[in-house]
Amino acid sequence: MWRTPVECLTITDVRYLERHKGEVNCCAFSPDCHILLTCSDDSRLHLWSAQSGQLLAKAKGHTGPVKCCTFSPDCALFASASHDRSVRLWRSATMRCLRVLSGHRRCVETVSFSPDGMWLVSGGWDKQAILWDVQSGEIVKVFSGHKGAIQCSAFSLDSQFVATGSWDFTVKVWALQRVEEQERTLQGHRGNVSCVCYSGSDMLVSGSWDKTVRVWLPWARTLLFILEGHHGWVRCLTFSRDGTVLATMAEGDVVSVCWTLIDKRGHRDSVFGCTFTPSGALLAAGSAGSMQKAKDGQQEEEAQKAHGY
Questions:
Q1: Would you state the pLDDT for residue 31?
Q2: pLDDT-derived band of residue 199, with 50, 70 and 90 as boundaries?
Q3: Alpha-carbon distance 106 to 247, whole Å?
Q4: What pTM value is reported for the model?
Q5: Distance between CA 12 and CA 14 in Å, rounded?
Q6: Could you tell me if 80 and 72 are in contact, meaning their C-beta atoms sit under 8 angstroms apart?
Q7: What is the separation of C-alpha 202 from the centre of its chain, rounded to a whole number of angstroms?
Q8: Does the N-terminal or the C-terminal CB of the chain have fewer CB atoms within 10 Å?
Q9: The 3-state secondary structure of the chain, one letter per residue
Q10: What is the pLDDT of residues 10-48, one digit of tens each?
Q11: For 15-307, CATH number?
Q12: Please, are residues 162 and 131 in contact by the beta-carbon 8 Å criterion?
């Protein structure tokens, strides 16, 4: 059941992490919530202490803007996607690049780990999604069918499906194991699909330049409902780990948490990426101006109590 909160969240004591020299395009917490990973148009990736906000390390190697970054489920690795047409796989402990995955013919916009840690999927301006074997770095499958650039991707929690959102206004869901039918197309958005995310109950959520968020039962091609209210195009969305709270962020707009609005104070520009902590109590967001997060410790406990976690 979709839960509608009855009161607004208040975010105080915002902390800035300002060492990037370009727009912060994506941010990701490690599964243990100790590390925050960010990537930027400055071609760099930064690792931060989630507790202190201290910059721990920088990863260099990409020669173009880094558009997406993500940790592996065990936090041993992280991956990055760049406009230099490559996906890079890094070891978290050393920040050493283990592999450069080359296969895309144009800029890469998105990369995602499967929950079981076996696969990576990437997509970009060549209109293709590539499934990679994490251990070998080899291409397992190439998914073709989109008529526009692929901007976003997400695995289902059982690692059996991959969803991709495209500038052709559609979401495609690709089956990794089924032989009889490889993909389903979800239609309805009236603008580029900029973000997709699975919930714990196998719902799929998509955000678009049409300023809406759509909630689907993906393999059944069923649209459950449409969430409206943003005044700009939806840039990013994320579920809390228990799947009950959805955060969405839009161009030049506020942060919406399950239709509770949080004032976008602290950000001086558009928000590009957001992610919940594993507990679901805190939310981090990256923008052209800075990246913010709520303070740990007592405030996290208060946030958990307010939402019944």
A1: 84
A2: confident
A3: 30
A4: 0.78
A5: 6
A6: no
A7: 17
A8: N
A9: CCCCCCCCCCCCCCEECCCCCCCEEEEEECCCCCEEEEEECCCCEEEEECCCCCEEEEECCCCCCEEEEEECCCCCEEEEEECCCEEEEEECCCCEEEEEEECCCCCEEEEEECCCCCEEEEEECCCEEEEEECCCCCEEEEEECCCCCEEEEEECCCCCEEEEEECCCCEEEEECCCCCCCEEEECCCCCCEEEEEECCCCCEEEEECCCCEEEEECCCCEEEEEECCCCCCEEEEEECCCCCCEEEEECCCCEEECCEEECCCCCCCCEEEEEECCCCCCEEEEECCCEEECCCCHHHHHHHHHHCC
A10: 445 556 666 788 888 888 888 888 899 999 999 999 998
A11: 2.130.10.10
A12: yes
User: Hey, what are 267's tokens?
Assistant: 């950000």
Q: Is 147 left (phi over 0), alpha (psi -120 to 50) or beta?
A: alpha
| pLDDT for position 20 | 82
| Amino acid symbol at 266 | G
CB atoms within 10 A of CB 39: 31
Cβ-contact 194, 163 below 8 angstroms: no
Query: What sign for the dihedral angle of Cα 262, 263, 267, 268?
Result: positive
Angle, alpha carbons 184-158-129 (nearest 5°): 45
How far apart, in whole angstroms, are the C-alpha atoms of residue 1 and residue 128? 34
d(C-alpha 65, C-alpha 24), whole Å = 10
* Cα–Cα distance measured from residue 142 to residue 31, given in angstroms and rounded to the nearest whole number: 28
